[in-house]
Structures are given as structure tokens and as C-alpha cells.
């Protein structure tokens, strides 16, 4: 195993390029014949057995979008992950969008099998895109699958401080 060490100032451009590539891979419409493979955690289908969301990669994709808007990165937060998981479980069970808890911004989605698809939906909807640029410092994200529901896979992104 190789471990790379970068100073914070050296890592920022490398991270920005990697995240911009990830965003480009998720752009809709395209038209060119070349595709860029997404990280497995972003393209894993949440409607398949034994799959789990790579929350760090998901927040990284949101952070790449925020960087294109000149905004600081969000820190992944296990407490907000727990909040997102409780909300998405409720959403998947009832099919009714949960109410946004106080003090956070919440983005919901249903029917997309992968986080990359979900993110593209949010990015391409002006209200959802604005939500991903909320004044926040931390993020939590979760998915839930309910085979007996209308949409199958449900998603929640929670941003807070």
C-alpha cells in the first residue's frame, strides 16, 4: 500500500481537479462517446443486495459542486448521517417526504438508483442546487431501499453547522 502525504495547500489543487473530473462524469446530456468511470461508491446501485452508500464520496461530490460555486467544503458528520438515515428510513417506509428538522437544510430524492444520478438530479434543479450551496459547514447523507414502495430507493442530504 502506498500512502501519499500532501500539505493542505498542495492538496487543494489536486482535490479540485479530482472533484471536477467527478462532476464532469456526472453531467447529463453529454453527447461525446467518451465516458469517465465513477468511483464505485458513487455508482453503486442502492437497490441491490449488500450495497452501501460511500458517504464520504457522496459528500465529496457535493463539495466538488460547492467548489465550482466558490463555496467552502462541507465536513462529513456522523451525527448528520444519523439524522439523514432516520429521515430517509421514514421516507422509504411511508413514501411521504419528511419535514425538515430545524437548523438544517435538507434535500430529498426518490427513484434514482445511484448517488451519482441523485446528485445530477439535484444539480440540475435550481431549487435543489441552491440547497446544496446553503451556508453550512457539515453534511450527512443516506439512502434507503424499499422494494414495496413506488420509488424503491430514497435519498436524504442534510446540511448544517
Detailed description of the structure:
With 161 residues, the protein is of the alpha+beta class. 43% of the residues lie in helices and 15% in strands. The chain has a four-stranded mixed sheet with strand order 1-3-4-2.
Order of helices and strands: HHHEHEHHEE
The fraction of residues in strands falls at 5-15%
Helical run tally: 6
Helical proportion?
Answer: 40-55%
Distance between the termini: 35 Å
Low-confidence stretches: 1-34
User: Nearest-angstrom radius of gyration?
Assistant: 16 Å
Number of strands: 4
Biggest beta sheet summary: 4 strands, mixed
**Mass-distribution shape:** globular
- Mean pLDDT score: 82
Spatial order of the strands forming the largest sheet: 1-3-4-2
Protein structure class: alpha+beta
Quick overview:
By secondary structure, this protein is of the alpha+beta class.
Amino acid at each position: 500500500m502506498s500512502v501519499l502525504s500532501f500539505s493542505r495547500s498542495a492538496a487543494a489543487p489536486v482535490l479540485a481537479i479530482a472533484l471536477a473530473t467527478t462532476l464532469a462524469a456526472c453531467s447529463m446530456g453529454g453527447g461525446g462517446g467518451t465516458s469517465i468511470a465513477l468511483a464505485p461508491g458513487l455508482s453503486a446501485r442502492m437497490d441491490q443486495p449488500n450495497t452501501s452508500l460511500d458517504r464520504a464520496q457522496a459528500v465529496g461530490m457535493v463539495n466538488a459542486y460547492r467548489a465550482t460555486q466558490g463555496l467552502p467544503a462541507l465536513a462529513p458528520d456522523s451525527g448528520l448521517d444519523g439524522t439523514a438515515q432516520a429521515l430517509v428510513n421514514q421516507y422509504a417506509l411511508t413514501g411521504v417526504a419528511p419535514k425538515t428538522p430545524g437548523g438544517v437544510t435538507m434535500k430529498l430524492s426518490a427513484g434514482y438508483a445511484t448517488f451519482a444520478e441523485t446528485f445530477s438530479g439535484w444539480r440540475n434543479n435550481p431549487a435543489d442546487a441552491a440547497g446544496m450551496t446553503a451556508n453550512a459547514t457539515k453534511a450527512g447523507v443516506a439512502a434507503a431501499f424499499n422494494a414495496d414502495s413506488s420509488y424503491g430507493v430514497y435519498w436524504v442530504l442534510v446540511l448544517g453547522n
